[in-house]
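Q: What does the assembly look like in three dimensions?
Context provided by user:
Components: two
Sequences:
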Amino acid sequence: MPELHRSDQTWERVTRARHANRPRTLGYISGLCTEFVPLHGDRLFGDDPALVGGVGRFNGRSVMLIGNQSGADTKENLKRNFGMSKPEGYHKAKRLMLHAEKFGFPVITFIDTMAADPTLPSEERGQALAIAESILTMLGLRVPTISVVIGQGGSGGALAIGVTDRILMMENAVYSVAPPEAAALILKLDPSTKQDVAAAMRITGPESHIFGVIDEVVPEPTPAHENPLDAIDAVGNAIDRHLSSLDAIYGTGADLDVARLLRDRYTKYRNVGQWIEQAADEAKSPPSL
Amino acid sequence: MPVHRVKVRGDEGYVMLRGTCRTRRVMTAMREAVHPVRATLRIGHASMDTAEERDARGMEQMKERIFRRGAHGGHESAENDQHAPQSKFKPERRTAADDPNSSAILVPCPTCKEPLYVKELENNLYVCPKCGAHFRLNARQRLIYTLDEGSFTEWDMHIHPTDPLGFAIGNDGYDAKLGASQKKTAETEAMITGNGTINDEPVVIAIADFTFMGATMGSVYGEKLARAAERATRERLPLVTFNASGGARMQEGLFSLMQMAKTTAAVARLGDAGLPHIAVLTDPCYGGVTASYATVADVLLAEPGARIGFAGKTLIEQNMRQKLPDDVQTAEFQLKHGMIDDVVHRRDLRQMLSTLLALYGMPRKIASPLLDPAHVTADAAESVLSAAHA
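A: Here is the predicted structure of the complete assembly.
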């Protein structure tokens, strides 16, 4: 059992993850890519400004970049719906991922969303299905994939672009099954308990790493909102390292061992979780907890 | 006691009235008699009158004496319903089936408030015979109503939940909650899996039990479902899932979130093997379950009136700062918006499933041209044959 984070320590990370000056997806893309062509629209309904993507050149190689995008100020946040994607956002993500597969581009995603957009129009257009289809698409992508949790990763809205061969997480990012405020609501607790809920869910990068859900924590010697350029560099180095390691394991281009890639990705997600297996003769009785 | 035969918008029915009622009330009762969903509305509305009025007009007695023909209440289409004053309709949680140990003989229908005999409810698949509301079923009840008698073999009963995060808020710990739920439901977790037959069609079945912590998807839910899907793939059997869930299990944190990827991966493999996954969404089905394996099913069915969505209504209302109409996020709403294949009444569900299983069946019963040795190598023929006999 990892050392328990006191709730105020966890909340400090939540505050940092949400900080207005923290670099966001487009910041990372412009810092890491020498060229970038944004691609818009889901070809079905619209274009979701809360989820951006496009083709870029990263360390001399073409890659597909996709990420949640919130704004630095209220005006941009209103335009980008505070980074909360609608179904068209996830449809766009799915389209861009299949696009990347077609041309053999590795897919790099940046996770930075509190949750998927919880409004009636999104429900009407099938928010749940859009997320499910994006997850399904990622599981079967025949190219290597890497995701980085750069700010807040919350709920299925984040996982929709997070089912990758490698999951990285910034030191001051948080990743949780639901944002602490929503979790308190779901658990029928007082909203003032959000800090305790955040701590109890163990949402920080180091804790997620200890539990083996993520692959690496990208350290932030100074928090990213104080020193964005160093943070972008650190993320770039981490992505580069993992991309090289994926290349070394599975090969590149025509030599890519797709079957092995998909098998390993399946195993990675198939093995997540903790449970107790009792011998068959004890099976009837509930476990002593 | 006067019995009136009435006809309203093409539907016939009977009303029996006791005491004296004014004409308007009689007409209301008649309408209620043949349009059960509206009946709930009007009665709900009428009962908001003052007590004196209600007594004077014998509304309570009238309510008790209303009968109607048939049991098509839950089947009313959205078109028929659109004139109903839905803003006054407050659907209640359907929980009478929640407590399997209850010894009550009479339970009120949470939707139409009619007192119903438990025995009668059981014989009617826990569908209110008065208004057609579908009560929630626990997983064992669902098994009984779905599979052929005695055909069920349960799998993976030895998998139990644990508390990976040491989750506790104050004195409220996850392990204690698990223990309480296990005691209350006599289940070890919110997911039951196994194999059996539906009208002699072999099937792997996975049923979520909403009475166990709201059937939230934790590690055990995901693991049992994934194992069931994998075994179905190995044994070349179709998969039927009955889904009801409050979403992810907060107490298992990221482990819970990742079950979405895990379950989706497992049912995707089933699909890669050419085997069908038929999902039935039952009341209520939300969050991580609708946003993962359930909605990517090959055939997506729902029970009438089931609440289905991604975000909970309270959360949406808080976020949009407005009240939502009561008919959003129902099975009918999802059908209208193209998200599910059909809404199926509980009494038709077994037949529907066995029809689908037969339609999507493996070459079991079909003579395949691939089996002609002139056309294929021995290897290929053998693999088709082994599939056929699996």
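Follow-up: Residues 7-282 of chain A form a domain with the 2-enoyl-CoA Hydratase; Chain A, domain 1 fold (CATH 3.90.226.10).
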